[in-house]
Every structure is written in structure tokens, then in C-alpha cells.
Amino acid sequence: MNARKTLLRKTGKAIADFGMIREGDRIAVGVSGGKDSLALADALLLLRRRSPVDFSLRAFTIEQGKFVRPVEPLGDLLSARGMEWTYYVDEPSFKLLEEQPTHGCDTCSRFRRRAVYDVAAKLGCNVVALGHTADDLCEALLRNALFTGRLSALPPVTTSRSGDFRLIRPLVYVTEDVTRAYVEASGMPITPCVCSYKTGTVREKLRGFLAGLRQDNPHVLENLLSSMGRIDTERLLDKRFLGRPPVAGAQGNGATMLLSPEKLAHAAVAIDSDSCQDVDYAW
């Protein structure tokens, strides 16, 4: 596998398929120190050279007190590649560590999300690029179906709740074996977060499940990814898409409430927030 060629081809296809980048966009690229965000930053730099539209790139890293080694090499690497880098120390996150050292990933994610928007605004950017991969989309699809009772994953393009930023995920077609191979071949310095060493999480279990399936069928991730773009609504249970008149108890949007809100609350499956590791999924 030619990791560089595959990375650029699939990233470029995702950008084109979903109209992620537009003329004059000022893109803030989130670099967490992991392989995926580093591959994303490099891919966007390389694709900009041949892009039919003009756009600018600025990289940033949010310091929440959880990196296992110094992050300065990230700045040196990005500067050498011609991308300006901003290192943002998020003081509220450090205070959170002091006051709630065992806080869950959902809390950490909320703090990081706020910091990301703060940085993007200070950089004068209108777009934030996130490094979620095809693996992340597939895991999100399974997690949401199994533990929240809904079919959804991660949007390739969306807007922040304030409407100030467009959020894009250019790596939605790229699997992590590609980003891993690319970063290793490029000799990029990985700066992991302590959260990446957590064990026993739902995310880790789903990854193990998918990895086991891929041993027999190496195209499992690609098939799951393809299924998200080929939804057969007539073979699911959502009455909004079945072409049938609503039944008694239907809600205003055509969906039927099978249980009262009170019973539904009792029937809901409770998931430990620490186990879910929804680090950036709810943006």
C-alpha cells in the first residue's frame, strides 16, 4: 500500500464529495498529537497546492494537562512544513484536573470544545478541521445503535451550535492503518494523551470487535462505511420512511412513541461516560 497516495486520494475525495472546503476558507486544523491529526494536517497542506480554490491553514493544539511528553516537537514539525502553529494552554481544563481528577471523557470533551472555538475565533478562522477517521465513524455507528438505540455516526460536515464555524472531517474515508503507515513512513513525532491508554472502555471493545471481524473479512470497515451512504429506509423500522399513515400516539414528526416518556426513561440503557470516550463525537 502506498500510504501517501491513498491518504491524499481518499481525503481529496471526501472534500469533494461533501463540499468541505470553499473559496477563501480560513481553516483551523486541530492537531492533538496523534497519528490521525498529523496525517490530516499534512494531507491538507499537500492538497492545497493543487486545489482549485484558495484557502488558508492554521494548526493548533489544546493543552489540557494530559500529554505524556512535551508537545514542542509538533510545533517544529508543522513550522518546517509551512503551517503556523498555535499552542493553547486551557487553564479551565487544568483547574478541572485539580478539582475533579477522575472526571469523565464527556466533561473533558466539553472543555476542549469550548477551547477549540476560542482558538478558532482568535485565529480568525471560519472552519475547524477534525481528524476523525473511517474507524471513528464505524465505531460511532455501532456505539449509537447498540447503546443509544439510534442509527447515527459522525457528520462529515456540520455547523457549530452557535453557527460561527463549519466543522469538517476530511478523513472520513481514510482508515487508521493508512494514517499509521503514513506517519511512520514520514517519521512524525507522536505525542499521545493519557486517555489513549485507558482500557476496558466501550470504544476499546468495539475496536477489538471490528479488528476480529477484519481478520476474516478485511473489508469490514469499508462495507460499514459504504452502508452509511446506502440506506434502505424501506427495510428499517422508522415509520417516517415507510410511506404509511401515522398511528395513534404518533408525534408531530411522524415518529411513534411506543413508550411513555417516563417508561422510556426507565427502559433506557445507562452508559458510563468514562467508558464511552466520546471525546469529540458530540460536536
What is the terminal separation in angstroms? 33 Å
How many β-strands, per DSSP? 6
Helix fraction by DSSP (H/I, runs of at least 4): 40-55%
- SSE order in H/E notation? HEHEHEHHEHEEHHHHH
- In CATH terms, the superfamily is HUPs
- The largest beta-sheet arranges its strands as 3-2-1-4-6-5
Indicate the radius of gyration in whole angstroms.
20 Å
Number of domains: 1
What is the typical, i.e. mean, pLDDT? 82
Strand content: 5-15%
User: What structural class do helix, strand and pairing data support?
Assistant: alpha/beta
How would you describe this protein?
This protein has 283 residues and is an alpha/beta fold. It has one domain (3-202): Rossmann fold (3-Layer(aba) Sandwich). It has eleven helices and six strands. Strands 3-2-1-4-6-5 form a six-stranded mixed sheet, sandwiched between helices. Residues 250-283 have low confidence and may be disordered.
